[in-house]
Every structure is written in structure tokens, then in C-alpha cells.
Write a structure and sequence with these properties.
- Strands 1-2 form a two-stranded antiparallel sheet.
- The protein contains five helices and two strands.
- The relative contact order is 0.15.
- By secondary structure, it is mainly alpha-helical.
- It has one domain (about 1-195).
- A hairpin with a 3-residue loop joins strand 1 (about 55) and strand 2.
- The termini are far apart.
- It is rod-shaped.
């Protein structure tokens, strides 16, 4: 069973899986950035188009509290929540890369040890001289270690690159958008309360 697994889970297979997951995760991050930027651009364009009476709402423009309706805000939030779900899933994939590298390391070491044992047995059976046995074992050992280290190296590099992209780009965009919606909700309710107070005072003739 173990021999069958180590024959299937080779260093080349692990590296191929890491590269495949890396491309998938990277493109996923790009899509999240694109979707969130599209939502924010739509909101900003709406702000610019509807700016009016001088009330402040998110986006940096002077405009009325009705710059977009609460229903529109919920629609934007729904689209943003979909992007957040994708982002959360992709974030869970990043820690998998070092684990795949470790799997390749363990697989390579197992293959190395098994090959060394077989080489030593075959050497003894064929009465090969001791120098030849040492040379054979050294070649197998170097090949196994190289296979093991390459998978770990590739896995770590992939995880580091994606983590940096996430930390300095994707998560920043997500956090900015979260703040955007929080600020809108606060300002929306404050503006509504202010308008209701003013309307009530007008009705009372104050």
C-alpha cells in the first residue's frame, strides 16, 4: 500500500498540483479584486451623478443622503458578500501549499529509504564490492533528497507569494470595502434622523 502511494505521489506530481492550485488561487484573487473594484466604481459613479444638497456620505463627495437608496446599498452589499465568500475560500487554500510541499518531502524521503534498502540488498546478493555499494547508495540518496527538497521549496514559494498578494492587495481591498459600507450605514441613518428632525420641527413651526 505504501509503495503504491509513493509511486503515485511523486515529487513531479506534487509540484504539478502546487502549480495548478497556485494558478487557480492567483486567478481567484484577481477576480475578487476585479469584482470588488467594479462594485466600488459603480457606487462612486452613482455618487458623482447624484451629488446635490451638501450632505456627506461615503466616497468623498458632497451630496444628499439619497445619493443612493437603502435598497441599492443592499444590492451592492449582496454582490460584495458573494466576493467575500470566494475570498474566504481562496484564503483557506493558501496554507495548503506548505502542506503539499511537506507531503512531497515525506514521499521523497520514503522513496529514498526504500531505494537505498533495495540497493543494499541487491548489492549484497550480487556480491558487489563495498565501494560500488556506497556509490550506488549515494546516488539514490542525492536523488531522493533533491526530490524531497524541491517540493518543499515550491510549496513554500507559492504560499509566500499568495500570502503577500493577500496581505498587501486583496485583504486591503476587502477591508476598505467593509469600511465603506459601515460608513455609509452610519451616515445614512444620521442623515435620515436629521431630515426627520428638521421635518418634524417644520411641521411644529419651530
Amino acid at each position: 500500500m505504501l509503495n503504491s502511494l509513493t509511486k503515485v505521489i511523486t515529487g513531479e506530481v506534487i509540484v504539478a498540483v502546487i502549480v495548478l492550485f497556485f494558478v487557480f488561487t492567483f486567478l481567484g484573487f484577481i477576480k475578487v479584486i476585479f469584482d470588488v473594484s467594479k462594485i466600488q466604481k459603480t457606487m462612486d459613479d452613482t455618487h458623482k451623478h447624484r451629488k446635490g444638497r451638501g450632505e456627506y456620505t461615503p466616497g468623498g463627495y458632497k451630496k444628499s443622503p439619497d445619493v443612493y437608496t437603502w435598497e441599492e446599498n443592499l444590492m451592492y452589499m449582496e454582490d460584495f458578500n458573494k466576493a467575500q465568500v470566494v475570498y474566504s475560500m481562496l484564503g483557506q487554500l493558501v496554507p495548503v501549499f506548505p502542506l503539499l510541499g511537506l507531503l512531497g518531502t515525506v514521499s521523497g524521503l520514503i522513496t529514498q529509504l526504500q531505494a537505498q534498502a533495495e540497493a543494499e540488498i541487491n548489492t549484497v546478493i550480487s556480491t558487489t564490492s563495498l565501494p560500488d555499494m556506497v556509490t550506488t547508495g549515494t546516488v539514490i540518496s542525492n536523488a531522493g533528497l533533491s526530490d524531497a527538497m524541491v517540493t518543499t521549496f515550491v510549496g513554500l514559494i507559492a504560499a509566500i507569494i499568495l500570502k503577500l498578494i493577500d496581505a498587501f492587495w486583496v485583504s486591503k481591498k476587502i477591508n476598505d470595502m467593509d469600511l465603506y459600507f459601515d460608513t455609509f450605514e452610519q451616515n445614512y441613518h444620521m442623515s435620515r434622523d436629521k431630515m426627520m428632525d428638521e421635518a418634524e420641527n417644520t411641521d411644529q413651526g419651530v
